[in-house]
Amino acid sequence: MISIEKQVINDALDKICRVKDKHVFIEYPFFKYLANETTYDLITKFIYDSFKNILKTNAKFTIHLSLKSLTLNEVEKHYAYISKVCTTFKTDFPDKLEVCYIYNAPFIFSKIISILSIFIDKPTREKIRLVEK
Are strands 97-103 and 23-27 parallel, antiparallel or unpaired? Predict the structure, then answer.
């Protein structure tokens, strides 16, 4: 029997990262409620495994990232985590990103891009598409 706490975490992970075909939908509004020092590795593994599963049948994947409700304080809070994830995924999934669509980007998006630019090479940055409302 699965514990209630584990079921709640699994449900949250399913809301943070959903997969359909070769598309990965990542929802920051759900991430922010689960993400902390004790859950970062769990979240990363879940997303990592999602990418691995897609790549079993597809050469590349597409990311749809919703940044709704992201604030500058949250960017600063998760800075180390963002850095680590970008580095890990760049190393483990080279040339696997087809395109990354970013939705609901807040006014602080330029701050986020400047952080990510440190860890993302130019060809990958060119695959990032900001989707206006």
Answer: unpaired
